């Protein structure tokens, strides 16, 4: 019996941005990619800009 069990999904900032469907997140990544960054570089740049601490 698993009734009453509560779980919480905790993911790192990189994965959160990579899988985000939020328009603000998507646009921030797209803006950096338009400047010549690849996806990984763009996500890391957004993390630094937003001062997200992993």
TrEMBL record:
Top-level division of the source organism's lineage: Bacteria
Identification of the protein by name: Conjugative transfer TraC domain protein
